[in-house]
Amino acid sequence: MISLAYLKPKGLFAYVGFSGAVGVIIMILLFTTAKPDLAETEIKPLFNLLGKAYSSTHNLIFFIAAVALCTILCWFCNSYAKMLKSLVEAEHKAALAAKAKGNFLAKMSHEIRTPLNAVIGLTETRLRKELSPDDRETMGKIQSSGNLLLGIINDILDLSKIESGKFDLIQEEYAVADIMNDIVNMNAVRIGVKPIRFLVEIDESVPARLTGDSLRIKQLLSNLLSNAFKYTEAGTVALSLTWLSESGRARLIFKVSDTGAGLRPEDLDKLFAEYSQVDRQANKDKEGTGLGLSICKWLTELMGGRIYASSEYGKGSVFTAEIIQDVFDLTPLGAKNAAALKDFTYIPENRAATAEYTPMPYGKVLIVDDVEINLIVAAALMEPYEMQVDCLDNGAGAVERIKNGEIKYDVIFMDHMMPDMDGIETLNSIRALGTDYAKSVPVVALTANAIAGNEKMFVESGFQDFLSKPIEPPKLDDVLRKWVMKS
User: Fold this and answer.
1) What superfamily does domain 169-351 belong to in CATH?
2) Which of 91, 100, 140, 290 holds its CA 20 to 30 A away from the CA of 427?
3) For the segment 181-208, what is each residue's pLDDT rounded down to a tens digit?
4) What burial class does residue 23 get, using C-beta atoms within 10 Å of its C-beta: 0-12 exposed, 13-18 middle, 19+ buried?
5) DSSP string covering 133-153, please?
6) For the residues 264-281, what does the mean pLDDT come to?
């Protein structure tokens, strides 16, 4: 095919000139086929044939039509080529932008999660000890606030996952009372100095243990409560939970109501649109991205439910979110737990000072991380297991320690982003030592880079397991039981 770009047309006359030449060729072919006798006698010389072709008015009209058709065809082909080139360039730019966004999110995740690991981790170690009621309450609020900030970071990362289609729900067993208590404590701090009463009402017949993504439920309700406290200057904010049994599953019905500014009827349809903030004039002093409710809508639909709102302008709003969860244990929550949640006196199972950890005094663990506070946190969280825990702040030291071979560690926790020699390079150097121990010692990726898909990347890079920061004690316990505990 002739490349039109080679011709570099400048306008209509260029098209007509090129098309005229094409038209002449078409005329020759047509006359050769339609009038073989004329072609036989006149094809040589060529210009005689052309002269006879132009001598007829009919043939002249036919020639003009051919030129016009070719002009249109050339214009179309050139436009299509330009459009195709633009699409290729746009796709390339989009790919570069997506890569840059991914790199930024990975860097942001690492930089913010590292100090959060210290806040949440060290608070966890204090909550394991015997504390006065006031100290336990204070430490619990510090940890809840840290978890709230972590949730905001996760929201930002979730947008990237949603846009890339890599967002999945994690189905795990959870205690309803525990997550409701976390939600209450995480959001009670939003009251600040406002004269607001926070009311909690839980149906005592709700199954005590369900299966679903508890983190996403917290995210859903935290977004709703955040809006309620933000737009309420005085009065009440209430959270309630009821349920319905549907074919062996539980339809949880959460209601978040407030006595805030309320919404105009015409604004209700705009609530769940992305980057939408209604009544901007009245709420110009309220910060927000306009993404919270759109994420709520997406989450409820992903969990088989729906979300809707009712409101009266100037008097308040009610948001209702319904989700479907599998029932793990039909035993009801009970009046005692429901009352404790209502009175803000519930103590979660994972906050008891007498939490049991299986000692592993025979265990030997090496932690490698270039940030000192991360080493302190990880070692403190492992203290109840009574293991030998050694710490190093660089990858080269870890390679030398394994090469020396004096201590045979049961597992190595390796940070990913370290200067000079990162976690993957350190792992490869250890494996390259060639000894049976160096080739087989389990190495767990310990990272604040929690972008979706990284776990798979670490496993493919040779790590045996993955643990994200801030370190969650239950997940740490699972890893230690898997790689250290002796049967």
Assistant:
1) Histidine kinase-like ATPase, C-terminal domain (3.30.565.10)
2) 100
3) 888 887 887 787 789 999 999 999 999 9
4) buried
5) HHHHHHHHHHHHHHHHHHHHH
6) 67
